[in-house]
UniProtKB/TrEMBL annotation:
One Pfam entry name: TIR
Membrane-spanning residues: 329-352
UniProt entry keywords in alphabetical sequence: Disulfide bond, Glycoprotein, Hydrolase, Immunoglobulin domain, Membrane, NAD, Repeat, Signal, Transmembrane, Transmembrane helix
UniProt GO MF annotations: hydrolase activity; interleukin-1 receptor activity
Stored SUPFAM superfamilies: Immunoglobulin, Toll/Interleukin receptor TIR domain
Gene name as annotated: LOC115579823
InterPro entries recorded: Ig-like_dom, Ig-like_dom_sf, Ig-like_fold, Ig_sub, IL-1_rcpt_fam, IL-1_rcpt_I/II-typ, TIR_dom, Toll_tir_struct_dom_sf
Family: Belongs to the interleukin-1 receptor family.
Native organism: Sparus aurata
Domain called TIR: residue spans: 376-522
Biological classification of the source: Eukaryota, Metazoa, Chordata, Craniata, Vertebrata
Protein name (Swiss-Prot/TrEMBL): Interleukin-18 receptor 1-like
Domain (Ig-like) ranges: 8-102, 227-316
Length: 536
């Protein structure tokens, strides 16, 4: 029982393999009732078995072998015409609706057609039989009638008598050629081909939907918009600099990037020089920003290139160099002012700190000092007074002081115990000495070789009166005196004159600061200068 079912199936399979027969969708054809339609049997392997006779069969309301069963007259009557591989239905009607097949020889596979005859213009029919076409303003445009379902040219007795065009909803004829098509030329057109057969005219109508598109824009070129040309960018060393290269592109494959001396700049933003990439506000605007985190001297030596690489045109470039910004004028000006102030301040500081050394240097080596011709005989009146405390200079120190002043530094001194002539009134003699001296030097002493402390007030008055300078020598012990422990006259004198402190043994050397100070406050020795200087 099983074998009985299996056998036919195997046979069918075998048959299929041998003949290549397998179910196949028929080719669909659409025609309006009253129109002509032609079916063309294709020459494909499987349908064409060499010299076998071509057989057309209709599988409409009645099965019919259109080739062998019918005579030409019968064909005429049915309104069909078979010639070679063509089957022409001259005047389609609902009777022609159905399937058709063609095959060559009994063994060959059949090729199927499904003919659909419409009596009314249905939407489906319109869709299946409307052919689209596109033209652009303001170009020329020729409507072409589709070559579908038309009879082969070699069929005897059928002659074509031209094609006419209508625009839909317009009964008048139109030309199929537009020298310069306009947008309102768009719409649905029908073309009617007419064929003459045995004195009868048969029509074939097709529909063409013309779409008129606006003028094609000229193709835009991608370009770098900024910087416009090779540029030199002034930068400050050490500053962060960002240079934007902007481009307009029209393809998603266009790219903008930076080169540094011919090699690619990285996009890695951890490196000192990199570029990053943004798509601008418009979709076709590209920005590649070259970033220098800290401009170095080496960066100034390199050449930078912004490159726009396009798929449809040659690449474009812009060349960039960096230069150091010139310092603005106000920076130099303020720098100058600062330098001037610094020089001034340091000059003042140096002068204040070293004024004694400088003055003595100028006086000793260059002989620069004020020369007075005041008719005075002495450079200084060295006056000792008995100090109230034990803080005065002892006799040896006093003698040393006098001898260094006279012998080492050539001061001419008026000394009370030497130069004041005895026999005169003491007060008068002291005042005379003051008058003959340019400076009075008050020396506290532990003994009392001078006129005594009682004369101090007299001297003070004389100094004020005669405008004579006073140098007040103190000892380290007198320095700690409280004001008030000094006598009133001494107090006044110490305030009126310049003070120099005798520091005992350390002040003995003529190069000690005691001597420098003392000489600074004293005028230059007049005798010495007369000897040393060239006569004027
Ligand atoms: C086509 O057939 C229709 C009806 O069958 C008829 O009215 C018409 O005249 C025929 N057309 C031609 C050209 O024979
Ligand atoms: C035509 O063939 C299709 C299958 O291809 C079938 O469904 C349809 O019934 C056939 N029509 C006629 C009229 O034979
Ligand atoms: C083809 O079929 C016809 C009948 O349809 C028959 O008379 C003829 O012998 C067949 N030819 C072959 C080669 O089978
Ligand atoms: C064929 O088309 C022409 C032109 O449109 C028309 O005059 C004629 O009547 C049509 N013939 C038939 C049979 O439809
Ligand atoms: C590019 O890098 C710079 C510097 O790091 C930054 O300021 C800028 O926002 C970056 N731009 C983009 C689009 O990442
Ligand atoms: C940079 O370009 C200038 C001229 O454009 C060229 O003379 C110079 O050699 C270039 N420098 C480098 C490092 O390529």
């Amino acid at each position: 029982m099983k074998g009985a079912i299996l056998l036919p199936s195997l046979l069918l399979l075998l048959l299929t393999l041998l003949t290549g027969v397998c179910p196949r969708r028929p080719e669909e054809k659409y025609v309006r009732a009253g129109e002509m339609v032609a079916l063309q049997c294709p020459r494909y392997r499987g349908y064409d078995h060499g010299d076998g006779r071509l057989i057309w069969a209709s599988h409409t309301t009645q099965e019919k072998d259109l080739t062998s069963d019918m005579s030409s007259a019968e064909q005429m009557e049915m309104g069909v015409l078979v010639h070679g591989r063509s089957l022409v239905i001259l005047n389609a009607s609902v009777n022609h609706h159905g399937n058709y097949s063609c095959s060559q020889g009994n063994a060959s596979r059949k090729y199927w057609f499904k003919l659909m005859v419409y009596t009314t213009r249905t939407r489906e029919y319109e869709e299946k039989t409307t052919y689209p076409m596109t033209c652009n303003t303001p170009e020329s445009c020729t409507l072409t009638c589709p070559d579908v379902n038309i009879p082969a040219e070699n069929i005897p007795d059928i002659t074509t008598s031209g094609t006419i065009w209508h625009k839909k909803a317009d009964s008048s004829l139109t030309a199929s050629y537009f020298s310069s098509v306009k947008e309102n030329d768009g719409g649905v057109y029908t073309c009617t081909r007419s064929y003459l057969y045995h004195g009868q005219i048969y029509n074939m109508t097709s529909t063409v939907k013309l779409e008129v598109q606006p003028e094609k824009k000229p193709k835009k070129l991608a370009e770098i918009t900024s910087p416009r040309m090779s540029e030199v960018f002034p930068v400050d060393l050490g500053s962060t600099v960002m240079i934007d290269c902007q481009a307009v592109a029209y393809s998603e494959f266009d790219e903008v990037f930076w080169l540094m001396d011919g090699s690619f700049v990285t996009r890695d933003n951890s490196s000192p020089v990199f570029y990053n990439f943004t798509q601008g506000p418009g979709k076709n605007k590209l920005i590649a920003s070259l970033v220098f985190k800290k401009v170095s001297k080496e960066d100034l030596l390199k050449n930078y290139t912004c490159m726009l690489q396009c798929e449809s045109q040659p690449s474009s470039y812009v060349f960039i160099n960096l230069v150091q910004k010139p310092r603005p004028a106000y920076v130099s000006l303020s720098l100058g002012i600062v330098c001037f102030v610094v020089v001034m301040v340091s000059t003042v500081v140096i002068y204040v700190k070293f004024k004694i050394n400088i003055t003595l240097f100028l006086r000793d080596t260059l002989g620069c000092h004020r020369r007075t011709s005041d008719g005075k005989s002495y450079d200084a009146f060295l006056m000792c007074y008995k100090s109230d405390t034990d803080a005065g200079l002892n006799d040896d120190d006093r003698k040393w002081l006098e001898s260094v002043m006279e012998e080492k530094f050539s001061y001419s001194l008026c000394l009370f115990d030497r130069d004041v002539l005895p026999g005169r009134a003491v007060q008068e003699a002291v005042l005379d000495c003051v008058q003959q001296s340019r400076t009075v030097v008050l020396v506290p002493s532990s003994s009392d070789p001078g006129p005594g402390a009682g004369f101090l007030s007299v001297i003070h008055e004389a100094l004020v009166e005669r405008q004579t300078d006073l140098v007040f020598i103190r000892t380290e012990a007198t320095e700690v005196w409280r004001s008030g422990s000094l006598s009133e006259a001494l107090q006044l004198l110490s305030e009126a004159g310049d003070c120099v402190t005798w520091k005992g043994v350390s002040s003995m050397s003529p190069s000690s600061s005691f001597w420098k100070q003392l000489r600074y406050y004293l005028p230059a020795p007049q005798n010495a200068s007369k000897i040393r200087l060239l006569p004027k």
